Amino acid sequence: MAMVMDGEVQLPAPREVVWAKLNDAEVLKACIPGCESLEKLSETEFQAVAVVKIGPVKAKFKGKVRLSDLDPPNGYRISGEGDGGVAGFAKGGATVALTPKDGTQLSYHVDAQIGGKLAQLGQRLVNGAAKNMADQFFKNFVAAVS
Amino acid sequence: MSATGIGATVRRKEDQRFITGKGHYTADVNRAGQTHACFVRSPHAHARIKGIDATAASKMPGVVAVLTGADLAVDKLGNLICGWMIHSKDGSAMKMAPHPALAQTKACHVGDPVAVVIAETLAQAKDAAEKVQVDYEVLPAVADPAQAQSAGAAQIHEVAPKNTIYQWQLGDKGKTDAAFQSAAHVTKLDIVNNRLVPNAIEPRAAIGEYDSGTGHFTLWNTTQNPHVARLVIAAFIGMAPEHKLRVIAPDVGGGFGSKIFIYPEEVVALWASKRVGRPVKWVAERVESFLSDAHGRDHVTHAEMAFDRDGKVVGLRARTIANLGAYMSTFSSSVPTYLYATLLSGQYNIPNIYCEVDAVYTNTVPVDAYRGAGRPEATFVVERLVEVAARELSIDPAELRKRNFIHQFPHQTPVILAYDAGDYNASLKKALELADYKGFAKRKRESARDGKLRGIGLSAYIEACGLAPSQAAGSLGAGVGLWESAEVRVNPTGSVEVLTGSHSHGQGHETTFAQLVSERLGIAIDNVSIVHGDTDIVQFGMGTYGSRSGAVGMSAIVKALDKVEAKAKKVASHLLEAAEGDIVFKDGKFTVAGTDRSVPWGDVALNAYTAHKFSGQELEPGLKETSFYDPTNFTFPAGCHVCEVEIDPDTGETEIVNWTAVDDFGVLVNPMIVEGQVHGGITQGVGQALLERAIYDKDGQLVTGSFMDYCMPRAHDVPSFKVGVTVTKCPSNPLGIKGCGEAGAIAAPAAVINAITDAIGSEQIAMPATPQAVWTAIQRGNATRKAAE
């Protein structure tokens, strides 16, 4: 099933700082809820492990994360595929755009596909859970850039 | 009628154990040394399996084995099969694709099992299943039957180009088209018969056990037909010859058709038990039920009904696409063909009928028989067409039905069936009286005063049950005979065991079958036991589905009782020193006609075994008889249901305020049990009409995979039913029984939708008619009216 989410966040830091943090594996790892490891494979590729809980489904997702459409410091697309074993799978990405305005305004557009048990059990919960995760991520990220 | 005989409201004997928690289900069976199975299922609707890495899983604690489709291939196990051959219009055979119990080259639906982990505990099996790495190459998928044959659709099986399993037809196309050409009025409808998940309370389960000493297999299984399961697993899967395979179906908690079929999981449990040398147990979780039980319905239909100037139906034609899912399940091919198109005459004298059915593969779980199986789909087509036509022709819907009812029996329809008995006017008349049809206009005005929309809808359904005369079934493609067998075993103390091939999974056979024996032999009902569900104990059987256990299963018992009585009379003639022809058996006593000399049943039973009064040369000792009964025709239960709804136009919420059901089931064995069947059937039908729909998204993901998203009917969704009966005896079986198990589910959806469309004044509503769908239809109707003004 398909999932789409849009949002905007106000960040108290200049765009260059935000851009640098968005490309810093350590920062991303600390900010992504449930992220257990994020290894840099190249400048634009990471190997990620994250534990995700949506409703009754809790699973460890493993997968590759890629950065593309790099346009420093205006934005990029971050995308990936995660395999959660019997919990199912998720694939998709987010387009991130940075605008200098009272610090930096970050807007994102997420599009994702999920399947397996996540889709069967979680479909009503996925959007809410994804929003929560995004909120949690940006709460952490605001702290990281402040 | 005796207090416990045919027609008596006897409390169900089996309920004592069910309501006190003493039922014994497959999940309650535990075998020494048993292991537990957890299946690894595809999260993708369609994916090539490039490899399976079980290394990490095999090293997990408690893991006994991890088995895949490759292991299955090594052991040369056969595929699961569909046992009913359907030929296309062009004469070609249906395109049955291979269905291995574990996917071997690709997974074809979400939930398709690709591997199984066997471990010491269930928790260990589940943990290890998480570690099985399956390398999938995801392929495009198709889930919508209406899209399956289109040029760009994903191809699922090589044997079936354009995913088409067969293109079948029934009836005379030329004559039907001609009837339409000269018709005064034609009513047309596009219908989607929504896909349903059966959802028996007890999920499927299996325990396989292999005895290496004797080479015997035993399978405990939630099946409606243990002998059929044994036959298929022996003859087609090739697991073991029939005499070395025992199938036991203990208490089974509901089936509704979904437990007729032979599924991958029980085959794997049996096979794995030999592989690991220990019993293997599997019990489905509810999510697995959603993903692996055969679903029901899923038809897309265009149907038309033609009328002459007098409102007489002159023709019906329908074109249906039936979704059979990713593989052909055990009887799936027969459901949208011989169980569907043959019922398109309904209760009406329709001279010309033509139906085309394309069955298609999709990347969804297989679809097969579900309570009513084809007949609810047919009834929905016919009864919606009649109702809509009545509105278009401005004829009262009851009157239009009456005008077209069949009055003379037997009646040969143009679609194979020969109806043997019925009185459709009688059930309609009684239903309209009970429902106070005349008072509806007043009630509608009262509802309008409260700001509510009120509607009334009829459904005059018919079904063909008691499946089926074996010769007829065979000529239509069935791979099995559809008789039933019974053994009546009289003990020396006079008590009786009946071994029946029917299987009870909620129907109450332990009571109703005992009522028959109690009445016939004049013994207390508590002195009768009904034994079923074990291939090593019961001689043979074809199981329970298609409302057949009363009409066919009990008829077999009657035949065996006839033989018991004949033998008992011989014993009695020796005891009474009278000629056998002079012995009369009545009220549990054998009497010499015209005298007061008699012996009671118990003495005859005892003497049959002591054999002191006759020589073994003239009469064999013992009192035990077996019979096989093959029906001579289908049975034709029919009736009329009236649904009355009240709709809140602001929320679109539908409340069913009145329900009247008048059914003709022939002779009733136990009116209380029959009424229970009617209540349950209607409630399932209301579920289909208002609440239930299995939804696959365009990628083939089942997004209604739990009770959070798949809405089952509850007590508050239905009113207190008004239930009545009319009786025309079924002429084709000795008890005059027609069967009642599916009627409610067959009648109800059309009655509900006819009532809702009456209330909102629009025919554009699909099932389930959720508040959102009803509200949207009302808004659409308002907008259309405004535009017209």
Can you give a write-up of this model?
With 146 residues, chain A is α+β, with helices and mostly antiparallel strands. Chain A has one domain (2-145): Alpha-D-Glucose-1,6-Bisphosphate, Chain A, domain 4. Chain A is built from 3 helices and 7 strands. Chain A has helices at 15-22, 25-31, 117-145, and strands at 2-11, 35-40, 45-54, 57-71, 75-83, 89-100, 104-115. Chain A has a 7-stranded antiparallel beta sheet with strand order 1-7-6-5-4-3-2. Chain A is globular, with a radius of gyration of 15 Å. The N and C termini of chain A lie far apart (36 Å). The mean pLDDT of chain A is 88. Chain B is of the alpha+beta class and 789 residues long. Chain B folds into 4 domains: 31-139 and 202-253 and 259-292, Aldehyde oxidase/xanthine dehydrogenase, a/b hammerhead (Aldehyde Oxidoreductase, domain 3), CATH 3.90.1170.50; 141-194 and 295-396, Aldehyde Oxidoreductase, domain 4, CATH 3.30.365; 420-460 and 633-789, Aldehyde Oxidoreductase, domain 4 (2-Layer Sandwich), CATH 3.30.365.10; 483-629, Aldehyde Oxidoreductase, domain 4 (2-Layer Sandwich), CATH 3.30.365. Chain B is built from 19 helices and 28 strands. A 7-stranded mixed beta sheet of chain B has the order 3-5-1-12-9-10-11, sandwiched between helices. The relative contact order of chain B is 0.12. The mean pLDDT of chain B is 97. The A-B interface holds A 1-2, 85-86, 88-89, 113-117, 119-121, 123-124 and B 40-41, 43-45, 110, 126, 129-132, 287, 290-291, 697, 699, 701-706, 708-709.
Brief summary of the model shown:
The complex is a heterodimer of chains A (146) and B (789). Chain A is α+β, with helices and mostly antiparallel strands and 146 residues long.
Under CATH at level 1, the class of chain A stands as Alpha Beta
Shape by Cα distribution of chain A: globular
CATH topology type of chain A: Alpha-D-Glucose-1,6-Bisphosphate, Chain A, domain 4
Binned, the helix content of chain A reads 25-40%
What's the count of strands of chain B? 28
Largest sheet of chain B: 7 strands, mixed
The share of residues in helices of chain B is: 25-40%
Largest interface: A-B, 16 and 24 residues
Rg of chain B? 28 Å
CATH superfamily of chain A: START domain
Question: Overall pLDDT of chain B, averaged?
Answer: 97
| Unreliably modeled segments of chain B | none
Q: What is the CATH architecture descriptor of chain A? A: 2-Layer Sandwich
Order of helices and strands of chain A: EHHEEEEEEH
Please tell me the total number of domains of chain A: 1
Task: Give me the CATH superfamily of the largest domain in chain B.
Answer: Aldehyde oxidase/xanthine dehydrogenase, molybdopterin binding domain
Shape of chain B: globular
The multimeric state of the shown protein is: heterodimer
Q: What spatial order of strands do you see in the largest sheet of chain A?
A: 1-7-6-5-4-3-2
